[in-house]
């Protein structure tokens, strides 16, 4: 089987991984059962493989119409493959060692074999490697389980309708893209390159929708294109078509873009307006000017501008199409960004991955052959960059694959408490109108507001004043009270209860969890179990303790039972450990629920568990 595993390609599908994981799991289980006194590492690794197989089976259930990269990135699939292959080789080597001691076919002797007969040094080395593999498998199981829950919470976008619209427009307006139409399966919604609506345009009815020809054989030969749709409040609909061609390196290092605008109104016939042709020079990432932008070296940038002229501001990198502004933003040097903006660089030009400077400042990145991802910058200096971009005409109305700038993750440990509040005030002053939007995973401006720690209450109040519904439920059934019970202090929960009349204490999400479950889950954090004020408040307001709920996959942390089991709040607290259980019991005591409703049962649990603390 080791030979078969060694032949797995770098692009192995989930179905193939399932097959190999299952084979290795059976091999490890049979080996552990075939010998007496088998080391605990063998049993542990066989159990982990079974859990990994279950996680992959659950994930593969989402495979219909979804690529393997969307379900599980290539690097994780490679890690699963290599770890499984290593385990299989170790098990095979252990079998050979045992066979050399007992002889093949002597099953009776093999079952009586004790591992003392094998070389101690060899055994120690092999078992040490098995322990390392078990740790890796545990981490993989957690990651796969998390991805599974995210995909379940918001299913991957169905692009059938968008494809039909794009194909119709291409047939009507761009006959030269006949071959591109045949590749409609390679078109996914993203923000378009080129000229975008600026933040000063307050007449937009909704965020622009854009569709981009992504990686396919046409792109490899240099052809790329996109379509952007906008709709204004006075019922004027605009479709911008951008066709681009990157000349081969052996020919000329330039990029040619052709843009056509098609504008139609419901009361008039369609008008086709003239487009524009832009030529941008593609240069090496190692060129003097691009290197200076990547380093954020202000002095070197100014020196290049003085020597080579302002024309170099319109150059882009050879491989990724990054503009000087995007490189400066990625360097996280505010001075370099300011220098380029003051020199006249366009803040609304994206790279080949269709990432705009506004999104790049918030940590949005593109990865080859992997989905785009976003991680907030390490410091809150991104807020300064955003302010400068807006001042120089950057659009705040764009979206990338269903994300607007307020559905991205805007919080990171170490930020000042008022970072998100300041950002929302800046967007409000720039006529931003998408505070109400929620992405596929349930992230929204309101969700980000709950991350603001001490500034959570004024941030929530700001959104309410802007017309955002605080009582709106997420697709998974959670309300603001659920999120606040887990992420915020008791003051925020009280504020929602009193100011916004969120009195549905026992409102359940799709798993059956009430806000009380989320408040209990917060107690698991080291040191947080001492502050059970949110739990006490919910209990005092009548939160039920006799409900049953399946736990959200990311909340299931007990090593016993099954995440599909139903838990009462008491059982859930017990599953999180003694510290959490005792803290929950104290909250019940304070709310006067033990004597009145549960009586002896909780006292028995406390009496039995207390000596173990």
Automatic annotation (TrEMBL):
Pfam families: Ank, Ank_2, PigL_N. Signal peptide: none annotated. Transmembrane segments: none annotated. The lineage of its organism: Eukaryota, Fungi, Dikarya, Ascomycota, Pezizomycotina. Keywords: ANK repeat, Repeat. GO terms for biological process: RNA processing. SUPFAM superfamilies: Ankyrin repeat. ANK repeats lie at residues 320-352, 511-550. InterPro entries: Ankyrin_rpt, Ankyrin_rpt-contain_sf, PigL_N. Residues 8-174 form the Azaphilone pigments biosynthesis cluster protein L N-terminal domain. This is Ankyrin. It comes from the Eukaryota. GO terms for molecular function: RNA binding; RNA nuclease activity.
């Amino acid at each position: 089987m080791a030979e078969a595993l060694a032949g797995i390609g770098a692009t192995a599908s989930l179905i193939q991984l399932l097959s190999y994981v299952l084979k290795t799991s059976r091999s490890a289980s049979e080996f552990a059962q075939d010998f007496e006194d088998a080391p605990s590492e063998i049993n542990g690794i066989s159990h982990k493989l079974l859990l990994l197989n279950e996680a992959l089976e659950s994930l593969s259930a989402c495979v219909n119409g979804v690529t393997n990269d969307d379900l599980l990135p290539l690097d994780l699939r490679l890690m699963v493959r290599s770890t499984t292959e290593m385990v299989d080789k170790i098990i095979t080597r252990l079998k050979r060692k045992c066979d050399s001691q007992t002889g093949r076919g002597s099953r009776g002797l093999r079952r009586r074999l004790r591992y003392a007969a094998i070389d101690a040094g060899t055994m120690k080395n092999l078992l040490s490697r098995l322990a390392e593999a078990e740790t890796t498998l545990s981490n993989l199981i957690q990651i796969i389980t998390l991805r599974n829950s995210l995909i379940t919470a918001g299913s991957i976008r169905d692009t059938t309708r968008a494809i039909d619209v794009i194909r119709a427009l291409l047939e009507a307006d761009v006959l030269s893209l006949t071959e591109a139409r045949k590749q409609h399966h390679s078109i996914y919604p993203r923000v378009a390159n080129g000229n975008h609506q600026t933040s000063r345009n307050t007449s937009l009815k909704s965020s622009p929708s854009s569709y981009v020809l992504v990686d396919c054989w046409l792109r490899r030969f240099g052809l790329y294109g996109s379509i952007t749709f906008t709709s204004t409040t006075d019922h004027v609909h605009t479709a911008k078509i951008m066709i681009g061609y990157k000349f081969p390196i052996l020919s000329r290092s330039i990029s040619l873009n052709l843009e056509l605008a098609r504008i139609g109104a419901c009361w008039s016939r369609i008008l086709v307006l003239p487009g524009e042709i832009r030529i941008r020079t593609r240069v090496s990432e190692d060129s003097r000017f691009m290197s200076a932008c990547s380093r954020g070296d202000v002095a070197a940038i100014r020196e290049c501008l003085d020597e080579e002229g302002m024309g170099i501001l319109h150059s882009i990198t050879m491989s990724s199409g990054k503009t000087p502004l995007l490189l400066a933003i990625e360097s996280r040097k505010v001075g370099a960004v300011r220098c380029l903006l003051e020199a006249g660089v366009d803040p609304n030009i994206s790279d080949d991955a269709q990432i705009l400077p506004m999104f790049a400042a918030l940590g949005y990145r593109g990865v080859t052959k992997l989905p785009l991802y976003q991680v907030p910058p390490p410091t809150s200096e991104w807020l300064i960059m955003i302010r400068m971009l807006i001042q120089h005409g950057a659009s705040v109305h764009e979206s990338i694959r269903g994300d607007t700038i307020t559905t991205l993750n805007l919080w990171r440990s170490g930020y000042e408490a008022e970072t998100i509040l300041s950002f929302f005030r800046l967007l409000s002053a720039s006529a931003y109108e998408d505070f109400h939007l929620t992405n596929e995973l349930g992230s929204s401006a309101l969700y980000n507001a709950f991350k603001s720690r001490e500034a959570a209450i004024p941030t929530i109040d700001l959104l309410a004043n802007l017309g955002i519904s605080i009582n709106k439920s997420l697709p998974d059934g959670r309300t603001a009270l659920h999120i606040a019970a887990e992420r915020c202090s008791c003051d925020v929960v009280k504020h929602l209860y009193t100011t916004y009349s969120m009195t549905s204490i026992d409102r359940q999400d799709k798993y059956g969890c009430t806000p009380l479950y989320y408040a209990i889950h917060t107690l698991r954090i080291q040191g947080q179990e001492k502050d059970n004020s949110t739990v006490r408040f919910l209990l005092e307001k009548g939160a039920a303790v006799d409900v049953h709920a399946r736990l959200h996959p990311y909340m299931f942390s007990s090593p016993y039972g099954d995440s599909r089991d139903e838990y009462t709040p008491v059982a859930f607290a017990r599953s999180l450990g003694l510290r959490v259980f005792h803290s929950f019991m104290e909250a019940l005591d304070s709310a006067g629920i033990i004597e009145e409703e549960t009586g002896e049962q909780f006292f028995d649990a406390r009496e039995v568990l207390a000596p173990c603390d």
